[in-house]
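User: My instructor asked us to take a sequence, write out its structure as tokens, and then describe one feature of it. I'm not sure where to start. Here is the sequence I was given:
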Amino acid sequence: MRAVWSFVVAENTRGGAVPQMQVGMVECSKESGQAMIIFDFETGGVSPEHPNIQLAAIAVDENWDEVDSFESKIAFDPARCDPEALKLNHYDAAAWANAPGEREVFGKFSAFLKKHSTFECVSKRTGNPYKVARIAAYNAQFDKDRLWAMGAGQFIPAHPQAFCVMQLAMWVSYNGMIETASMKLSDVAKAVLIPAKDAAHEALADVRMAAEVGKRLLQIITK
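Assistant: Let's start with the prediction itself. The structure tokens for your sequence are:
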């Protein structure tokens, strides 16, 4: 079975620069057997200066079934946040009391990506093969910008093409296959008959919902 995916393309950069994004289309094969990492940041606002406050991800197999998970709160300064964003994310100071710093979380998440690296690349510099993880997010441009900025120029064991579930939902909606009130994750989930979850804007819950939505959208396209 083959499916057309929408993706956001960004080249891996050095020096901490946030990469430029381009939107395109790519084909992927479900029988490839390659794992994919679906990830999500919760943040203290939508502007780049607002801090990351939580990062979560799941690894899914070729059938979009969860095989592993990652979640960590991130230490941050509430004074740098939009108060409305903290309210939306149900911020509780006690829950973040022992949260690790961003650098530590980045290291742990890089290890998680490396653990599930199945996509083989070839170094342009040395010609040697190496493996990276395939990554996806509901709003890939937002989350991939955040991840690359978090890495601050360090190598990220992830393929620079990030699959975007929201772009896929836009394509399916544009072609009249679903009707949705908006492109919010909760609205698209409702449109594809996925029950609402109580823990919206909790990173791991949002990641799992994004995976369910992506799986359902692919079923709609390929049925």
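For the description part of your assignment, you could build on this observation: The longest strand covers residues 52-60. Try explaining in your own words what that tells you about the chain.
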